[in-house]
Amino acid sequence: MRINCPHCGPRDSAEYTYYGDASRVRPSLTDTGVEHWHAYVHERNNVKGPMQEFWHHLHGCRQWLVVTRNTATHEIGAVRFAKSPVSDTAGA
Amino acid sequence: MTQYSALAVLRNALSGNTGWTRAWRDPEPKPAYDVVIIGSGHGVATAYYLAKEHGIRNIAVLDKGWLGGGNIGRNTTIIRSNYMLDGNTQFYEWSMKLWEGLSHEINFNTMVSHRGLYNLAHTPGQWDQMARRGNIMRLNGIDAELFTLPELKRRVRYLDYSPTARFPIYGALHQPRAGTVRHDAVAWGYARAADKLGVDIIQNCEVTGFLRDTAGRVTGVSTTRGDIGAGKVGMAVAGNSSLLADKVGLKLPIESHVLQAFVSEPIKPLVDHVITFGAGHFYVSQSDKGGLVFGGDLDGYNSYAQRGNLPTVEHVVTEGKTLIPQIARVKLVRSWGGIMDMSMDGSPIICKSPIDGLYLNAGWCYGGFKATPASGWCFAWTIAKDVPHEFNAKFTLDRFRRGVPIDEKGQGPVPGWH
Ligand SMILES: Cc1cc2nc3c(=O)[nH]c(=O)nc-3n(C[C@H](O)[C@H](O)[C@H](O)COP(=O)(O)OP(=O)(O)OC[C@H]3O[C@@H](n4cnc5c(N)ncnc54)[C@H](O)[C@@H]3O)c2cc1C
Ligand SMILES: [Zn+2]
Description:
A: 9% helix, globular, B: eight-stranded mixed sheet
């Protein structure tokens, strides 16, 4: 797999580390309910098909990226900086 | 159906091997069964024990592909019971005991080989940890021996013991009864034995949804070969558990990941045990045909693709070469991948699901082949009696919510451990 880093260009996936599903939202730290935290820490959508994921360009620019990748085919689609505003995700 | 024996082999040798009959039937699905099991890995073992131990004979095992086409026929065939935490320890030892008598019990040579497994330690810390694990195993009546370097060198001669090795070897924890089993034979043997007891094995039959009554109880499955009613439904579809559970609105603490395995060209006998490298993650044994069978880490990203990528191939092969330098010149002939149900604590789930009529067998990570007999045995018990056996009582789905995971590695909720 090659990931097209918006900063460095297309690079081998071996340069990156993986942090999984980017759609998970951490509950507020003031939320002390077990259910939300259980869902966040343990449960996964485990999507088959296009999925938004965090990849870290560790051996490159060290930026965190959100990569859309198809888990059924390993095909890589849109890539953006994780720090970019949410509106950038439109259509990704 | 022919009873397999030395005499039968001889008789067929003389009659041109024309006397063999098919090993199991290929029936059309019936409209309904007492129990429907989805998945023909642990599923065929489950069906066999339901029929044999609990007298339930009206059973179907459904698989979307062919029998043994899942992980049961894709793994590196290692069996062991060198676990440390309560729950795992007793369960995997029960599996080891079932392996010990399996070939005779099901009249199928599954080639169970107790060739022993050496877990290598590379640091004093790892050595201490192994001593602890070995002691826990022995306290549970499981065989374990700790070997210092001189003793290990005497027993296993071909590892890189040189002082310049990148990860010098310190010693090893040995489980003599651990070993390997012929994986396909396990699927075929259980299928044949279950079929003999009346179980219908139905291949090319994908489950696409569940039938529910007004109270929400699961009353059957819809499949690519029509609806099939069931008193109880058990799912054992490691790799695809989340997708099927989603059809009844269940979210699981599981991610699907790809694990690769490799076979080298056949060479003369070299590796006569199972060896695991402790400085990275690499395990190797040698098949009876002479190929080195080995594997290592997951590729490390979610996948349903049943094939991995080259960086992992390079990583695993490098580990092998670090440990056994002489294999550098051996050619790799095949590699393949399987999709693993990676649970959040590295331990499995065998329990009633929160939905009436549906039973769960999932979360096998990448060590679930050795569990096949005990998994089937415990799952059958749970389905037949509606309560878990003590061997699987801790493998509940709600252990994560309740904060009592079974985390052998002590590394927290990460879907990467077995
Ligand atoms: C490369 C590799 C090496 C491994 N090495 C080892 C090892 O050395 N030792 C060890 O103990 N374990 C090992 N494992 C792990 C072990 O193989 C698995 O944990 C175990 O086989 C899982 O058993 P199962 O019966 O749940 O899954 P499977 O054997 O995969 O069976 C599940 C079945 O469900 C079917 N299915 C899925 N969805 C549906 C549907 N909707 N309808 C109908 N059928 C469906 C599939 O076709 C499949 O046949 C390895 C795995 C891999 C991939
Ligand atoms: Zn970059």
